[in-house]
Amino acid sequence: MASQFDPDFPCSLTIDLPLPTARLASAALQALRVDKELSPLVRRSFSTISTASSHKSGEPSLVSSSEETILRTEYKATTNRMLRVAVNGFMESLSVVLGVMEELDLDVLGMEHAD
User: Fold this and answer.
1) For 1-52, how does the pLDDT look when each residue is reduced to its tens digit (9 = 90+)?
2) Which is it for the CA torsion 19, 23, 63, 16, positive or negative?
C-alpha cells in the first residue's frame, strides 16, 4: 500500500522487517511503539503485515501468507536530515529489541537449536 504524499512531510521511508513468527512481530511492534517521536517534524507509524501483502514477485514463502510476520515502520519527516536522525534512533531501539528476542525468546532459541 503506497502512502499518500504529504507536502508538510515530503521525506518518507518504509522499513519492512520480516520476523520468524507473527507473535514476535507483534511483540516488536508493542515494544517499539511506546517510545514517541521526540520531534514534531517527524511522524512514525507501525503495523504488522503478511508476507502476501509485501511480496510482489510471486516467490514462495516459508511462512503462511496470512500470518502478519512483517513489522512495517513508516516514517515521514519535513527534511531528509530529520528523517535520517529519526531512523538512526529507531535502528538503535530495534537493535535492543531484537537482541532481547535473540537472547530470551523461546521461538528464536528453538530455531537456533533446530539447525
Assistant:
1) 455 788 999 999 999 999 999 999 999 999 999 999 999 999 999 999 998 7
2) negative
Residue 28's nearest CA partner among 98, 75, 104, 111 is 98
Residue 61, burial from CB neighbour count under 10 angstroms (0-12, 13-18, 19+):
middle
Neighbouring C-beta atoms of residue 41, cutoff 10 Å: 18
> Per-residue pLDDT tens for 45-83?
999 999 876 655 455 555 456 899 999 999 999 999 999
Task: Please tell me the distance from the alpha carbon of residue 2 to that of residue 74, in angstroms, as a whole number.
Answer: 11
Q: Where are the domains of the chain?
A: 11-114
* CATH number corresponding to 11-114: 3.30.310.50
Q: How far apart are CA 36 and CA 77, in angstroms?
A: 14
